[in-house]
Each structure stands twice: as C-alpha cells, then as structure tokens.
Amino acid sequence: MSEFPVHPVPESFKGAHITADNYAAMYRESIEDPATFWGEMATRFLHWHQPWNEVVSYDFPKGEAAWFSGGKLNVSVNCIDRHLPEKAQQPAIIWEGDDPTDSRIITYAELKDAVCRLANVLKSRGIQRGDRVCIYMPMIPEAAFAMLACTRIGAIHSVVFGGFSPEALKDRILDSSCSVVITADEGLRGGKRVALKRNVDKALDACPDVHSCIVVARTGAEVDWHDTRDVDYSQASAAADSDCEAEVMDAEDPLFILYTSGSTGKPKGVLHTTGGYLLHAASSFHYVFDYRDGEVFWCTADVGWVTGHSYIVYGPLCNGATTMIFEGVPTYPDPGRFWQVIDKHQVNIFYTAPTALRALHAVGDEPVKRTSRSSLRLLGSVGEPINPEAWEWYYRVVGESRCPIVDTWWQTETGGMMITPFPGATPLKPGSASFPFFGVDLALLNEEGAEIEGAGAGYLVIRASWPGQIRTVYGDHQRLIDTYFSTYPGYYFTGDGATRDEDGYYWITGRVDDVLNVSGHRMGTAEVESALVLHDKIAEAAVVGFPHDIKGQGIYCYVTPMQGVTPDDALKAELIALCVEEIGPIAKPDIIQWAPGLPKTRSGKIMRRILRKIAENELDSLGDTSTLADPEVVESLIAERQSH
Ligand code: 6R9
C-alpha cells in the first residue's frame, strides 16, 4: 500500500496500557461480549450516581441505540469534581494565546469555580435541563467553561465554529431553537480580529427566541450592546455563586448537538448523549494516547469541531489530564509556532491534522529543528487521510523517529476514535489508520452490499452499536435512518471508502459521497452549490473536490450563468464573497469554471463522476459518457478546464 517501511513498537512503549499481549483479547471480548466489556469500562472510567440497568440495546434499522439505560451521572462532575481535592492545584487547562506572550493556566479548582459560576448565570437567565445553548466562541478557556457549565445544569450545548458566517450561525440557532448564545466580543487568530459579537448581532436579528447573549471580553473591543439581552460575562460570573449543584442526568439524556455536513441538504444536528459518549471519549483518550497522569496533552483542533469536543474537553478532563487550548494558527507569528509551544509548555502528546502538517512540511525542517521537542512522547493525526510523505516527515523530523504516530479515523457521528493504532501494540504503517478501537465491529462491502472477506477495497460500514454512536439528527430522526442506516440495511454506513490489506490494516481512501474535506473541514457540495445559485446571475452550479497539495481537497465549482449574462472576473469575485457570506471563509471556492452546460443523464441528474474527473484533470478516464443527454457539454468543459 505504501512504499514506506513499517515502524515497530518502540522499546519505550513496551509498558503501554495496551500492548500486543492484551489488545487481541480485549478487542475480542469487546466484540463478543460488549455488555461485560463496556460495563467494566464504565465502572473504571466514569463516576455514576446510580448504576445502569442494561449496558446496551440497539436497533440499527430504526436508528436506535441506548447505552447504560437507567444509569445516572453528570458530565461536569466526571470532568471536574471527581478530580478534587487531589488535583485542585494541577493545571486542567493550559491556554496559549494567539500572541506568544499570552498564556494562562487554569487549575482544576479554578475550573470548578468558573464552571459553577457560569452555570449559575445560565440558571439566572432561566436555562433549565434540556434547554439548548449556542456557543460561538474563539479558542479561549471560557469556551470550555461554557460547555461544562451547560453539562452542569443539564442544558444541551450546540457549539458553532467561530469561523462560520452570521447566516450559518442563524440557521444553527434556529434549527435547535437555542434560547441563549455565549460568545466573545472578538476572536483573535494569526493577529487578525474576528468580529464574533457583530456576527451574533446579525444572526440574532432573525432569532426572536434568543433572550440572552453572554459576552466574554476577549479583546475589549467596542461592541453594540442590547441592554435587555446582552450579559457581560465577567460581571455576571463575579456576581454569581461559585457553587452549583450538578444536575443528575440519565445516561441517555442529550449532552450536545453538533452540526456537520452531509451529502445533501443543510447541515445535520448530530446529537450525542451523556453516558456512552463520555465513556467513548474518556476510554479512547486513555488507551490510544496511552495517557499518564501529569502529562500535558495538546490537540490543535477547534472546539467548534468534534475533535475539540472529545479530545480538548471531554476525553482529557474526564481523565483528570492537563489539556491545552491554543487560540492561534500554526504559522503565526512564524511557522515554528507549534514546536515553540511544545517546548514552552512541555507538551508530551500532540494531536493535529494532516493539512497543518503538509503546510509546515512545505516550509522545511529549519523551524522544527530550532526547537527541542524533547518532551514529546507520542504524536497523533486526525481529520483526513494522511499521505505517507507527510506521515514520514512528522515521524522523522517532528518526532525524531522516537514518537509513534496514531492516525485516528472517526467522525462527528461516531463521537470518538474508531480506527487507530495503539502505540504499544501496533507496528505502524505510514498512511494507515490500522485497526478498530474496542467495540468497533468493522466490515467492507462491495457494490452489491456483500461483505468482502480478507484483503480488498470497499465501502466502510459498522456492524454493531458502539457507545459514542450518534443517537439522532436533531429534530429529524428519519434523516438519521436515511443517511446512515438505509444504504446498507443492518449496517451503519460511514460514507468513507477503505482498503484492508493482507495484514488486516485499514487504509481510509476518503469520502465516497458528496462530502468534501477541505483542510480537515467537512463540507457538503450541496451547501456550496446552494450558496452559488443564490446569485441572480447564476442559473446552476455543481461543486466537486479536487486534490490540493495543502488542503487535501480544494473546492472546484462549475457555474452556469443565466442566459444573456457575460461572465467575468467581477462575477467570480461576487460568487466567492457569496460563499463566504453564506457559509464562512472555509467555503471559499478555489476554482470557478464557467460552464455553459453541465453533463446530465437523460433523467436530468448531474454526472458528478465526470465533473470530478475533469477537475482532477484525469481526462483519459472519464468513463462511460454514453448516457449523457448532451455529450458535447463535456468537450466544452474540458476545453475550458485546459485554460486554467
Ligand atoms: C474526527 C473528524 C469525518 C470524516 C471521515 C473521513 C475523514 C477523519 C480521518 C479521516 C482518513 C483519518 N477522516 N479522520 N480520513 N484518516 N484519520 O474529522 O470528524 O469532521 O465529522 O469528519 O473525516 O472522511 O468520514 P468529521
């Protein structure tokens, strides 16, 4: 699969939590007897107010799953109170600001104080268990306080990535009828300010049910203030009680909603619940990162994505770990920032995305080599397939051939890691996510939906429920069934393709549906298309991904102007602006190609397969074009493509 050699388990990991000696037996038990396996894990990793009646029951065709039914717990108690008083003075969060001179340490005692105060502020604004709270924040400790404050009182948080536009924010607030938004005056990334409060103000013009907006002063910028609605975070927190009794929740009570893109329609509100999700995040954090008490863990994701939920906040804090929150970007003020921060805070475990690694690799080794990185023990990758070249650079240059790399495959819908090496058990093949995590029962299906035995390539599916499984699409359970449980009845369909080699290693090949992965950000082609056709000079648009050296995938748009419109660069600029306005800067098209027509079947379906090939410049393998209504369209698109 890859020309690169296999890296054996290093001597320093022979004493890891999971080794070749216990992985196979534990994995087998987790599949053959999930109730016993996860029952023991739940006792080990979580604090329960009341034990459960049944570990698991599920029905894939109905899209139903329940873990630890009847069990009672509270997430903030598990992430904070449980570690007190022993860890009162241990850093829970190390915050590194955008500016390298800006950092802050929050101990577990301070975390409890901040979370309880904010929970009381929420209560004073009428928030009760089950209510939805939108969090639209920069990467500051208050983002984690806000999430945990919700869990303290049983409110359901919906974190919206701070890079989304007011329009995208509004859609998400309305979809889950949030009544409170927690935000900041501005964000700060790479020296640039992001007008978060202004975006919220715009969004809230169309959200009459939001009665409160809690605002953290991050930069101190002047912002518009609505006296009856807006609440100053620091004033309100200072005035609030520092004790807040934790709401006792059922294991299956909703914990959070997180919007993610699918192949059709608007983003879906993925709903996760309390017990199963927390167990999946906590146990995978412990085993996959081989976490040791006292170590500093750094996940560079944003809390607006699932990786930030599970591996900045819930997984680490549930284990009583020290977790980093980084406000900045990898290249500011210079491309050595990641490595300088690792030295500054003595980071032991570092978890990042291939897109960042590719960008930093392109700059060369010097910024890395200027730093020591001697604290590093383990490296991780997540979000998209990592190409073996980037893997090798990460391994050799960043980790000095000393630190294993865990390439972890999972999704917003899975809650936690699903395919991953274990650093003490798995010889590493660069570019392979390797083997299933505990309780993950994988299969590959062929075009007919039959299981592939042994080595082969196919659609990646899951045979049985796992604790962190998505429970529903908020407000639209049928959409859950249609998206994940109908394509291959009896299985959960991931939307990814994969290969299994002769040694049983899995290699994820990427999405097989109309979902793009741009710099690790998930985006539906349909979302970009709907933004483009909002323009009154545009008749039709089709969007596909194409290989991009740094981003992994770029956004390629075929756009058909209305009759009589002469397309020009000014119109292109307007379309790019429209995508940014509707979705956010992450949805900025890389290439807009004018298309007098789009290749369609006689029944009117756009043939994306062909558009993808043209975008990839793979013109020899366009495949069968005989079913096209108008084959000449393809010729003209190719001619136009060649002019780019
Ligand atoms: C955690 C996260 C999910 C999609 C997923 C897949 C891709 C994630 C990957 C990977 C190859 C890895 N993906 N990790 N592909 N190797 N290690 O990223 O969630 O934002 O929902 O994206 O990302 O295509 O289906 P999410």
Describe the structure.
- Strand 19 (378-382), helix 14 and strand 20 (405-408) form a beta-alpha-beta unit.
- Helix content is 31%, strand content 24%.
- The chain has 2 domains: 11-111 and 249-499, Rossmann fold (3-Layer(aba) Sandwich), CATH 3.40.50.12780; 519-640, GMP Synthetase, Chain A, domain 3, CATH 3.30.300.
- It has 644 residues and is an alpha/beta fold.
- 54% of the residues are buried.
- It is built from 19 helices and 32 strands.
- An 8-stranded mixed β-sheet has the order 12-11-8-6-7-14-15-25, with helices on both faces.
- The chain is globular, with a radius of gyration of 24 Å.
- The model has no long low-confidence stretch (mean pLDDT 96).
